[in-house]
Amino acid sequence: MKMNTKASTLFSTLVLLGFFHLSLVSCRKIKGNHGGNGFTLDLIHRDSPLSPFYNPSNRLRNAFHRSFSRASFFKKNSFASATDTIQSDIFPIPGEYLMKISIGTPPVEIVAIADTGSDLTWTQCMPCANCFQQSAPLFDSKQSSTYKTVGCNAEECTSLGTSSCVRGNICEYQMSYGDQSQTIGDLAFEKFTFPSTSGNNVSIPNVVFGCGHDNNGTFNNYTSGIIGLGGGEVSIINQLDKQINGKFSYCLIPIPLQSSNSNATSHINFGDSAIVSGPNVVSTPLIKKEPSTFYYLNLEDISVGDKIVDFKSPNITSSGPGDDGQGNIIIDSGTTLTLLPSEFYSSLESTLVDSINATRRDDPSGTFGLCYESENGTIDAPKIVAHFTDADLELSPSSTFAEVEEGLICLTIVPAEEVAIFGNLAQANFLIGYDLVANKISFQPTDCTKY
């Protein structure tokens, strides 16, 4: 994949912000229901009691505010034309989920932010002239027999768009951000090993990753870098294409249930294990756009009971001449809330107000526009259905209206200028399968606590 200079600037600006963050703490290699092999891994949300980030106070509000941080970024950047030059302040956002894998031979364990909004996977490496603090030792490539740097003329190097040639013929990547956060290092091949509770580890040779020697910014010491799960060429998903055939899926447990059931974990599946089939499955096309990192869907409208609110899409990044305006919303499991353009949100809110018989109450924090009093943590909400192309998703009332504090229930859909994101609360309790070969996403209603 080669992009022009301006598109490359946009891509490199976006690459580390991330959309969907997954935490991989264990893996079991299993034989899929459809023949062949796949593997399944546990995911730990950063606000789960099992997470090192866990803070039991104001968990929902903390997650909601991270959604607005993302929205402010998208407002300035990701929905401008791909031909525009982008200059803005960008601040890396802590990952929603953590991922634990091993790299090298012998294998060395790392914990990184798993991120569908990034393609390049990177970790801090020795020697490190300027690094952020991390709890685990830095990866030492000299101790690995399977480490090999990428040459400057290799496709893996030229496709990055933000690389240079150093020390003879070593591809050096550079990712920098408006707050002076950055990662710079050698692009290399290495063996990646996914841990398995069964003892049958899943090892993949010659995975392209960044060995970072100059990294700083607002990263925390529980992580050592990023695991890129986006749609671009150097993402883990595309690098494992021969093993997983472009397929992965996940089942996310609603945030409130993660506190009441500390043993419940979400899961991500790869390969044959990721095929979503059976009763009640609906599928919608994945729309190809630039940057190719992100996963775009087409939302047609939203219904509230028997009333239809037509979706007016924002000016999302164009895929070039002939773009038909499809792909008007990004599906993102790293953003908690669902964000919709302000004009459309106003129509949706008015329709909801007319359909709900409950006492309205202002949100003291000013975060949410539509809130109600509730003694038992619920309200009698109408059926809300998101109508994607060829796929109608009935959204769970418990996810659409959440108790943000005692006695206060608020709508978890919020307005955002020129941005549209289908967040993880709306995705909860669906088994969601990505098929990058067939270019579709499938949804199956599922109790993810039992999946």
**Binned strand content:** 35-45%
**Structural domain count:** 2
Main sheet characteristics: 6 strands, mixed, barrel
State the secondary-structure class.
alpha+beta
Determine the CATH topology of the largest domain: Cathepsin D, subunit A, domain 1
Indicate the low-confidence ranges by residue numbers: 1-35, 73-95, 317-322
How large is the count of helical segments? 9
Q: What is the CATH architecture assignment of the largest domain?
A: Beta Barrel
**What's the overall geometry?**
elongated
Strand order of the biggest β-sheet: 4-5-13-6-12-11
Count of beta strands: 30
Percent in helix: 10-25%
Distance between the termini: 37 Å
Return the average pLDDT rounded to an integer: 77
Main CATH class of the largest domain:
Mainly Beta
- Cα-based radius of gyration, to the nearest Å: 21 Å
**Could you name the CATH homologous superfamily of the largest domain?**
Acid Proteases
Keywords: Aspartyl protease, Glycoprotein, Hydrolase, Protease, Secreted, Signal
Subcellular location: Secreted
Main location: secreted
Family: Belongs to the peptidase A1 family.
Would you kindly provide a brief summary of this structure?
This protein has about 450 residues and is of the alpha+beta class. The protein is built from nine helices and 30 strands. It has a six-stranded mixed beta barrel with strand order 4-5-13-6-12-11. It has a four-stranded antiparallel β-sheet with strand order 19-18-23-24.
